[in-house]
DNA sequence: ACACGATATCCATTATATCGGAATTTCTAT
DNA sequence: ATAGAAATTCCGATATAATGGATATCGTGT
């Protein structure tokens, strides 16, 4: 790999080892990882494999997640401006070509916030199974003819209008018009904050 | 290593990837890990290094500890479908008519997630002061000619392309084209619990 | 100061993680 | 069915993780 901005786990491991009054040799015997490898890992001069890391957590009796100091286990990377070209934008197409979703949100946000450009063929519908409890959808129509239906009601949309509804129950979006319909769909999962 | 009784993370990673509708190629582009390596890891035929695992958790936006286990969910209340007509959709217009924002997100979400339809006149720019620390913006171009600039860099956008950048520093969006430019802007405030 | 045992690092060798391109399989469409 | 495209898996080449023995460093007495 060209760059490695992964967190430093060397010092963490060294700290755990020293707290247990273990020598490199002793830990090597316990974990099955060689002393030299341990030395390199602790000094950040090696990039251990998963198997090695796992052995170490077992030998030290620590939780795997403890390897990352401070508990911040996912950090925002993008320092500059990140560009997602059209070709790299994930798409979901229905088997019968009734609809197409372009996933505009970042994969890193999946399960928290997602937004899509929706395209539905005339007379077709996009049916969705219930999402996780507490999930809401917000649909803004870019064209006329769209209809939203859930177990709790139905609502037609004109261009520019927005519908907000629970998505933790069955719901479907129908294009009742004669042209391909487009819309913006934002899915907001319950944040429980 | 002779023995490896470490947990199987391959299936976990594959599940996360598929949930995001990413191909091996796309995840490779996102993470910097080759598609062949990804394939091997998912099938348990490789023993990835820490650096590789870290890249993957970053690209997928999952917690490092999720590689071992998994679990979530909660719930909330009920309502029907709420409709926001075009006339009721809040708008912000610049004094000089250089740009216009339509606030598509719910006011209840303000300060957490907000999304806008942006319109910028030819040759004009939308300048924004820094938002709260940790805030990110995601801009998807609906037309050509848009240019995003922050203190950290600049990026031109073609139709359908998406830019992601920090919004906790000064940033501006310019329409360098000769037609009115349109885009979707999603502002995501830092949620860290 | 000087040893001397204990511990950690360096070095050459081996094993394998990682990569890019080719071959294969899977999917989609006609 | 069959062709084409897309996605995944296979394969040879390379970079590097991992090892065991040799060397260096540290610590603790005397």
Automatic annotation (TrEMBL), chains A, B:
Name of one Pfam family that matches: HTH_3
Gene3D superfamilies: Jelly Rolls, lambda repressor-like DNA-binding domains
Source taxon at top rank: Bacteria
Positions of the HTH cro/C1-type domain: 13-67
Keywords: DNA-binding
InterPro entries according to UniProt: Cro/C1-type_HTH (IPR001387), Lambda_DNA-bd_dom_sf (IPR010982), RmlC-like_jellyroll (IPR014710), RmlC_Cupin_sf (IPR011051), TransReg_Diox_bact_type (IPR050807)
PANTHER family membership: HTH-TYPE TRANSCRIPTIONAL REGULATOR (PTHR46797), METHYLPHOSPHONATE SYNTHASE (PTHR46797:SF1)
Protein name: Transcriptional regulator with XRE-family HTH domain
Organism, as annotated: Aminobacter niigataensis
């Amino acid at each position: 790999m060209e760059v490695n901005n992964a967190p430093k786990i060397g010092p963490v491991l060294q700290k755990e080892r020293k707290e247990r009054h273990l020598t490199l040799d002793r830990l090597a015997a316990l974990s099955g990882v060689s002393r030299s490898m341990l030395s390199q890992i602790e000094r950040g001069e090696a990039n251990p494999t998963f198997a090695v890391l796992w052995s170490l957590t077992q030998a030290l009796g620590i939780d795997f997640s403890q390897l990352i100091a401070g508990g911040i286990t996912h950090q925002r990377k993008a320092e500059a401006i990140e560009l997602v070209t059209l070709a790299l934008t994930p798409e979901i197409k229905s088997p019968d070509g009734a609809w197409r979703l372009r996933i505009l949100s970042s994969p890193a946000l999946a399960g928290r916030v997602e937004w899509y450009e929706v395209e539905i063929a005339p007379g077709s519908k996009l049916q969705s199974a219930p999402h996780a409890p507490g999930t809401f959808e917000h649909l803004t129509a870019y064209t006329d003819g769209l209809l939203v239906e859930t177990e709790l009601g139905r609502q037609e949309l004109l261009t520019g209008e927005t519908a907000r509804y629970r998505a933790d129950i069955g719901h479907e979006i129908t294009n009742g018009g004669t042209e391909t319909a487009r819309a913006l769909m934002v899915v907001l999962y319950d944040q429980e904050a």
